[in-house]
Amino acid sequence: MKKILITGGAGFIGSHLCKRLLKDGNEVICLDNYFTGSKSNIIDLIDNPYFELVRHDITMPFFIEVDEIYNLACPASPIHYQFNPIKTIKTSVMGAINMLGLSKRTKAKILQASTSEVYGDPNIHPQPETYWGNVNPIGSRSCYDEGKRCAESLFVNYHKQNDVKIKIARIFNTYGPNMHPNDGRVISNFIVQALQNKPITIYGDGTQTRSFQYVDDLVEGLIRLMNTTDDIIGPVNIGNPGEFTILQLADEIIKLTNSKSQIEYLPLPEDDPIQRQPDINLANKLLGGWSPNINLEEGLIKTINYFKPII
Ligand code: NAD
Ligand code: UDP
Asked: How many whole angstroms from 260 Cα to the centroid of ligand 1?
C-alpha cells in the first residue's frame, strides 16, 4: 500500500484521482484550500479509513511522510486563474517549490499537473512535447501559462540538482463529472446553458478549436505516467487528439440535451488560442500503449447526466 498526497484533491480532476487511487488499494491524503474545489466532490470518501482530508494552501510549506505526490493544486479555468493572477503565480511557483522540497526530503516521487497552455497560441499543429510554445509573457493568461512553465523548470532543475524523482504531465482540455457548474470552462458552461435553454455563449466566431479529453482517460494516463521508470522525467502530453471547433461543440451539446438554446456570440478573450491538439505518440510509447478510450459524444452524455440533477 502506497501513501499518496494529492494537492488540489478536492477539485475536478483531483477528486477522480483520489477515488481511483483509493480503489487501487492506496492510502490517499487530499490537500486543498477549497478555492475552486469543494468538499462535496469527495464527500463519499470521508468515511474511508484510508482517506484523509487536509485544508492547506500549497503556497505555505507542508510536512508529511508520503511515497508519491500528485501536484494538481491550481485553478484551471481562465475566469478563476485570472481572478487573482498574483495568487495563481504563487500557487504554481511557490507551491511547486514547497512540494518539490517535500519530495527532496522524503524521496517521494512527484508528478506535476502541467498544461497544454505551456504551448500558448501554438504555431505548430498538433503540438509535440518538443515544441517550445508561443506564450505572451505579459498577457492576461500569462499568470497561468508562465506559472506552469516556471513550475516545469523547477521540476527539471530539482531533478538535475537534487535527484528528485519527477514526472511532468502536459494535460489538454479535460472535462467530466465534478466540474463546478460555474467553473467557466466551455463544456460546463455549454451544458449548463443548454439544460436551462439559455443562450449558448460562444466567444469569438467559434472557429477556434480544442481537443477534449474525458477525465477517466486522463486519470489512467496520470497513474501510468507516475508508474513509469525513474529515467522518464520529461513532459508527456496527455490528451485526446479528437479536435473540434467550439461551434461544433455547441451544436453537439444542443443535440444531446435536446435543448432550445440559441447561440449568442460574445467577444473573444485576449490571447485565446486559435487551435489546440495533442500529439500523443510519446504517451502511447511510454505509457504501455495508452490512448483515450472515450470519444466526445460518449463523454458528453456522461457529463450531461451528471449535470442534469444538479441544475
Ligand atoms: P480545479 O480548479 O477543479 O481544481 C484545482 C484544485 O486546486 C481546487 O480544488 C482548488 O481549490 C485547489 N487549489 C487551488 N489553489 C490552491 C492552493 N494554493 N493550495 C491548495 N489548493 C489549491 O481544476 P482541475 O481542472 O481539476 O485542474 C487540476 C490541475 O490540472 C490544475 O493544476 C490544472 O492546471 C491542471 N490542468 C487541468 C486541465 C483541465 O482541462 N481540467 C488542463 C490542463 C491542466
Ligand atoms: N469558450 C466559449 N464560451 C464559453 C467558454 C469558453 O466560447 O462560455 C471558448 C473559449 O474562448 C476558448 C474555448 O471555448 O476558445 C475553450 O475555453 P476553456 O476556458 O474551456 O479552455 P481554454 O481556453 O483554457 O482551453
From this structure: 32
